[in-house]
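Re: beginner question about structure tokens

> Can someone show what the tokenized structure looks like for a real chain? I only ever see the sequence side.

Sure, here's an example I had lying around. Input first:
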Amino acid sequence: MNARLKRLMGADGKCFDVAIDHGFFGELGFLAGIENMDAAVKAVVAAAPDAVQLSVGQARRLQAVPGKQKPSLVLRTDVANVYGSSLPATLFSELIEQPLEQALRLDAACVVVNLFMLPGQPEVLRACIQNINKLKPQCERYGMPLMIEPLVMQANNKSGGYLVDGTLEKILPLVRQAVELGADIIKADPCDNALEYHKVIEIAGDVPVLVRGGGRVSDQEILERTFELMQQGAMGIVYGRNVIQHAKPTLMTRALMAIVHDNAKPDQALAILEGNI
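And the corresponding structure tokens:
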């Protein structure tokens, strides 16, 4: 494990990365809870997660925080136009320019890139693979951990926009492909049955898997799901909307940190969220 990966993960080898990079993708619906980025970053940093995931234009808000104990930066390196309720005629997934130089200047501990699988859109998968193939040698050269986000999506005309496909049989090969392409960390969606998530962990081998949060759900559901996924062998989580769109983002971050690092049960985490601990 290289120095930056040690900085990213907790002393127990686990990680809670709060994603606040949603504005990067040009969708109005993604801006709920992050209209004021200074306030959003401040609320999350106050709860001391392991990392905060940001774009190149917003990373300065985290890195301007003084002191040694602030969360590590995970830098988003690709932008795509695949999330809308109706798809444009031409889809893309593109890397930012000089991604590793920008990451180093911003003192990132990790970079993250997508690996999309969209029904009937093989050109997007190819673009993602090309992005990863460009990033990986640079990451190796500069000792930068590479987080790959294998994301299986439902057909746009079926879901009316951005919805993930939790079919295990589709998730497994894409996670394995991410490993084969050189991922140091996998950020993967939960499968439909959380009790089967150990199969995702197995297919990733010795590459740590962080679970992606997805859309906003009830407090009870997100806490119970997180606990079960951690029991299945996940090494952490990458949640955005379930934190930043919550009425109490600081307390939600602390509640989830307790599950990830202290093995807190859902009712214990709920007590933290409700301010009873």
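Each token stands for a local structural state, so reading them left to right follows the chain. Residues 3-247 form a domain with the TIM Barrel fold (CATH 3.20.20.70).
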